[in-house]
Amino acid sequence: MAEDLFTDEFLEPTSDALYRLSGVQVDYRTPAGVVTAIQGITVDIAAGGITCLAGPSGSGKSTMLRVLGLIDRPTAGKVWFRGTEVGGLGQRKRRALRRTDLATVFQAPTDNLLDHLSVGANLKAAAQAAGQPDRTQEVLEQLGLPGTADWRITALSGGQQQRLAFGCGLAKGASVILADEPTSQLDSASADLVLETITALGRSGITIVVASHDDRLMPLADRIIRLHNGELE
Amino acid sequence: MQLPWRRAPRAALSSPLTVLVTVVASLLLSFVAGAAVLHASSAGSAAISYQVGRNCEQNMAPTFRLQRMTYPETSRLLDTARTEGRNFGFDHQVASVYTGVGYVDFNGIHPYGRIGYRDGAYDHLTVLQGGDRNGTWVPESFAKSAHVKLGDRGMYGTLPPVTAIYQDITDTSSGFWCTEKEEVTVNALAGEGRSAAVIFVPRLSDLAKIDVPVATVGTAPPKVPLTDDTPAFLTVVHYQLSPVPDTVAAAGDATGRGQQLIDRMKTVYVPTNTTYYDSRTLNYGNYFAKSVEVAKESQTKVRASTLPLTIISLIVGLIGLAAVAVQWCQRRQAELRLLWSRGSGPVALGGRSVLELAVPLMLGSALGTGAALLLRSWYAPPGALPDGTIPLTIALVLAITVAGLVVLGLTTALRTRQLFQGKGSTTRLGKVLRFVPWELITAVLAFLAWLRLDSRPQTPRPGSALIETDATGLAFPLLVVVTVALLLTRLTRWGLALSHKRSMWRWPAGHLAMRRLAAATGSAIGILLVGILAVGTLTVGSGIADAQQQALETKSGLLVGANSSVNIAAETGRDPSTLPKDVAEHSTVVGLLQEPQRTVLVVDPATFTQGAWLGDRDAGEVQRMLASLGPGQAIRNAHAPAGTIDIPYAGKVQTTASVGSFPFLGTKTGYIMTRSAVPDIHDLVSFQLWSSLPLDRLNADLDQAGIPHYYSQTVTKALDGLPFLTVTWTFTFVAALGMVLAVVAAVALVLAVEVRRRQNAVSGALATRMGLRRRTLTASHVLELGTLAGLSTTAGCAAGLITTGVSVPLFDPAPWLRPVASIPDMAPLVLVIYLVTAAVVAMVSWTAVRSVRTAHVGELIRG
Predict the structure, then answer these.
(1) Which of B655, B687, B707 is the last residue of a domain?
(2) Residue B153: closest CA among B139, B141, B138, B174
(3) Cβ atoms B674, B608 nearer than 8 A
(4) Which among B707, B733, B768 is the end of a domain?
(5) What is the least distance, in Å, from the CA of A71 to any CA of chain B?
(6) Contacting residues of A for B16, CB less than 8 Å apart
(7) What pLDDT, on a 0 to 100 scale, did the predictor assign at position B218?
(8) Start and end of every ABC transporter domain (chain A) (predicted)?
(9) CA-CA distances (angstroms) from residue B480 to B158, B317, B446, B694?
(10) Which residues of B touch A102 (CB under 8 A)?
């Protein structure tokens, strides 16, 4: 089921490629000088299913995820999203895409939620951000968290919080959810619950891109992109 | 509005420290803004109040005066002035009509006197006998001379019967009679017939019945009927303003209306009798206009000279709010990143911080405004607030609050843009700002301000009694303090950058302190800058304000010679034993020999120190110096020639000592002798009574004892104190701003330690478990904070003291009156500043060490 994609033969966006990256390089300026996080990344990511970005720490997974999430711009190369070159897109248009199409789940569960809002209000806030109708109850049912709408965030376990983070993506009607090490701070049981959610979302037609070195995720992935030292392996 | 923004105000509750810091920053910011407006307004009103105190209250409005008028002409003038006065808002006319000084008939006796009428006069006379308001009131001195009894009728029966005998008027320094000094008081020293007490009639029309002119001094009393063609009366029109103007605006309005009234009167009233030169044109005065102009200048000067520091303080406050925003971004980074990933832009995230911190900010603004209003008496001169001041204050505070909100939003927007969009614009701007040689710019400005001070005219401008210091010159001390602060912070920044190359492990406490300071260079530099500004402005503000106050007191005291003084008749001067006991115990009699080139004081060594103004001179020393003078000996003052000198009535006199300045003489050329040096005291004709008593009490006591006196002076009115007070008010506010900055510096020190509390606790706890002695740890914290605070305090004090010493003589509005203003005793203030600094350092160090002592390393590492 898993399919490794490390090719540079796609030069034109194809109809089924949600993302297309061509020769992407990202540099960071640090006090010690310029550090290249990823370079020469040329890859297509198809719509739907689960794509896993795999590799050891420092391999550039998170950077690539940030490029896909339209948070970072490539220093060199081009990125297409739904056939549109987004690397050079203006901030306003990139924000619009983030608002309507993309959702990001960060590593720490608490970083994905607004701790001063209740569970339901978090889902509502996510929906509002994308201009979507409020489907709090429905999403909570889908996440297996019925009856928690009025709970405080701190009343949820780490796993529940992380599932709720994916739920926020669902609530805002995102077509792509980008998750950065979503299980790394969870115990095994909680991580299983999150993996279940990821699987379910992947099957529902949402494109899931997960950066992780959780071995349990690999069998669930439709595609695996392996990175090493910032380059495709 | 989306939920994260709508619920933002409630989210603030999750961080009480941020809320508290925002409230305090906003409070101080609003206090400075509000206090600046209130201070400037109060200064204007205080200047007006001061001018009101120096002017006669009936001189606040226009005055009309015409001599040698007939009764019908007098009536016409009064009617016209009354009608026109009302048209311009001067409803309460005070008309005074006097005959000239001449022989006034009573019981066939004709002492010198004058007959007069004044609106409301009977309400302001002290009745000794009788008191019926329908008759003539006779002054005591006249009644004694003419043996006047109640019921007598003067001027051959044309005056109403006498119904009261009143105490002669002697004190016209203020109040109802202030404008009438020349008309109603007797100058016993001026010679007979030159002045006379007034016999008051109850009604103006009573003057019409007098058929004998009294203005025939030096001639036998003729019995010539008055006719319309016989000019006789001096008519003076005043207006009583009620209430007396207490603000610049009200005073300006009064003088403006006054000028309009004068212009109108010049048009509508033309004297019909042109026989005499001095009755051809109406004399008028709008005396208060000049005072109002001076008060306005004073207000403008205070406002202009406090503006630079006010702006600096506001910028410091806004930078403080920017720091709050940066800290907020750090604390809310996860949330901001989440919202950013959901498509929110910098502006929206800036709005998020504004919504969260707006309530604390506005609360701080309200508290700051309240504090500015409540503490006005502490930082501003006493003065009424003009209409519109409070709304203006609130408007300015609102503007500053809005500016604060903009700073919060803008800082958050730039910070999030930098964090998530990878834009380093603020960092680049910061680098550019850091390389601008600010200290050179302020040093040049300080030099230019000093040039203005140094090149100021040495004589007053026409129409002024004293030299005015311009607003640019007043900025000099502040610019020096700012330059020192900026220079020292730059040197410290370089020093801390270089400190990485230094290792001082042989002295662990010193090394730890240095490393901690270097690790937090930004906050250390900020605290140092605000600390130096605070201490410097506090020192310079207090120093210059005190120096000006002292200079005013010293110069006034030297000018008058005593707290209060009056000229007395030669008989009293020659024989002071006639003085009342209370006066004698607090006064001294001084004979005067005034010549064009020199003045000789003839003093009584036994009583001199109990009456004369000595300032900070030791009374015993002065007494010993005077007592050592024998016959034929004198003390020379200032630059008076030494050796044997010729002094009238004393002959050849030998100078035996010299003084730099002396009461009354100041630094003018003169000599001081004792009464025993004048062989015949009867040769002296001019005497003054110098007293430590207040003037009103001295006048009252002398009146009661029936001792003639004239030309009273008091230290409170000797000099126009406004130029002194303008500088004092300016620097009192500077000192107040220094206090505010000191609070900012102390809070910043506390926060700097509090923000690093966890980091300090971890490193401290680990270090102590690795063998660092607790005493060394404590010493390192004390050294770290003590260095910062000590450097701020020492640099601020040094800059403040030196600048005060340089500035004070240059600010002296009357350098020709010695001594020139000099730096006051600053030791107590400096001591207090060091004690407070030490207390703050001790408290903050204790909290830092306490956080280490109570830390559980395991928990801290786990986070």
Answers:
(1) B707
(2) B138
(3) no
(4) B707
(5) 7
(6) none
(7) 38
(8) 19-233
(9) 76, 21, 6, 42
(10) 341
Say if residue B236 is in the same domain as residue B92: yes
Query: Which residues of chain A make contact with B14, given a CB cutoff of 8 A?
Result: 115-116
- B582, B511: one domain: no
In a domain, B735, yes or no: yes
Mean pLDDT value of segment A192-217: 87
Cross-strand pairs, B671 = B600, B636
* Complete domains list, chain A, with CATH: 47-71+94-232 (3.40.50.300)
- B862 in contact with A, Cβ within 8 Å: no
Residue B57 domain flag: no
Q: What pLDDT score was predicted for residue B276? A: 53
- Among residues B131, B91, B118, the alpha carbon closest in space to that of B179 is found at B118
Residue B20, amino acid: L
Band of pLDDT at residue B223, cut at 50, 70 and 90: very low
Q: Which of B2, B14, B338 sits opposite A111 (nearest CB)?
A: B338
Query: Across the interface, which of A95, A111, A172 has its CB nearest the CB of B334?
Result: A111
Of A96, A97, A114, the CB nearest to B4: A114
Q: Residue A89 — pLDDT band, cuts 50, 70, 90?
A: confident
**Counting every residue, how long is chain B?**
863
Q: What is the mean pLDDT of chain B?
A: 85
Calpha distance A81→A88 (Å, rounded): 12
| Mean pLDDT to the nearest integer, B596-621 | 88
Are residues B802 and B733 part of one domain? yes
**Cβ–Cβ of A117/B3 closer than 8 Å?**
yes
Q: Which of A71, A98, A124 sits opposite B3 (nearest CB)?
A: A124
Instruction: Say yes or no for a CB contact (<8 Å) between A110 and B334.
Output: yes
How far is residue B474's CA from residue B306's CA, in Å, rounded to a whole number?
Answer: 9
Q: Do A104 and B341 touch (CB under 8 A)?
A: yes
- Asked if the Cβ–Cβ distance from B11 to A116 is below 8 Å, we say yes
Q: From CA B514, how far away is CA B783, in angstroms rounded?
A: 9
Domain count, chain B: 3
Q: Are residues B782 and B695 in the same domain?
A: no
The minimum CA-CA distance between A189 and chain B, rounded to whole Å, is 22
Of A163-167, B75-79, B771-775, the least confident: B771-775
Nearest CA in chain B to A75: B422
Are B657 and B739 in a shared domain? Answer: no
From A101's Cα to the closest Cα of chain B, the distance in A is 9
Strands (E), chain A: 3-4, 17-30, 33-46, 50-54, 76-81, 84-85, 102-105, 176-180, 207-211, 223-228, 231-232
Distance CA B530, CA B518 (A): 18
Look up the ipTM and state it: 0.90
Bridge partners of residue B714, in order along the sequence: B564
Q: Is residue B5 part of a domain?
A: no
What's the pTM value of the predicted model, to 2 decimals? Answer: 0.79
pLDDT tens for each residue of B613-628: 888 788 898 889 998 8
- Report strand pairing: A17-30 vs B651-659: unpaired
Residues B680 and B748 in one domain: no
By C-alpha distance, the chain B residue nearest A169 is B342
Residue written as tokens 């300071």?
B517
Q: What whole-number distance in Å separates Cα of residue A88 and Cα of residue B771?
A: 57
Count of A-B CB contacts under 8 Å: 69
Could you give the CA distance from residue B66 to residue B236 in angstroms, rounded to a whole number?
7
A149 contacts in chain B (CB < 8 Å):
none
Range of the domain at B226: 62-240
- Asked if residue B605 belongs to a domain, the reply is yes
**Chain B interface includes A8 (CB < 8 A):** no
Residues B495 and B521 in one domain: yes
State how far residue B315 is from chain A, nearest Cα, in angstroms.
30
Question: Does residue A98 belong to the interface with chain B, where contact is any CB pair within 8 Å?
Answer: yes
Claim to verify: residue B556 and residue B575 sit in the same structural domain: no
